[in-house]
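Researcher: Here's the sequence for the chain we discussed earlier.
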Amino acid sequence: MTEIDLKTQTIAVLGGTGPQGRGLARRFAQAGLNVVIGSRGSEKAEATAAELAEATGGTVSGADNATAAAQGDIVLVVVPWDGHGELVASLAGQLAGKIVVDCVNPLGFDKQGAYALAVEEGSATQQAAALLPESRVVGAFHNVSAVLLENPEVTDLGTDVLVLGDDREATDTVQALADTIPGVRGIYGGRLRNAHQVEALTANLISMNRRYKAHAGVRITDV
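Model: Thanks. This is the structure I predict for it:
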């Protein structure tokens, strides 16, 4: 994989005020990347950005999701599944021509715990690709613990990130983005059609975490 310079890119995190988005934004800012946090309201995004900028010494700004999407060169979608399709469709114009990283896990919860939901398009990532025909959609960061991402005392996350997509240059870029997080490797995990099982695996990890009181992740051997 050729060396990719992410320092010239702006990383937008839509849904960046939630635990997962905030944790990813924290790690990218710590790595010296330019980060913009998106949220439904700009005030909450700006407040979160100010907190992360102070905590990391990095460059972090906040805006509403549409503005953040327009500002980002690489845009992560880290929103609840319930609002995923509506938000992605509404931002098709701002996201045209950009690498869009879908991080969403379509999960349901009942008394037995978490379980994967059926998605008409096959997965959240494939739904995003269908709604964003002019974007370069990649799936990644589905199985990373928000607790570990947000904990500044964790200096090695000790996990791999499976990166899925049909565009080799885009998946290489997202693998490099994952590599900026200490203890994380970005590993190519297949084409978009293989995203479902990676998203669904999060339900298994949640079950492991409950049983073992842990923050389980994924490690790929022999790569």
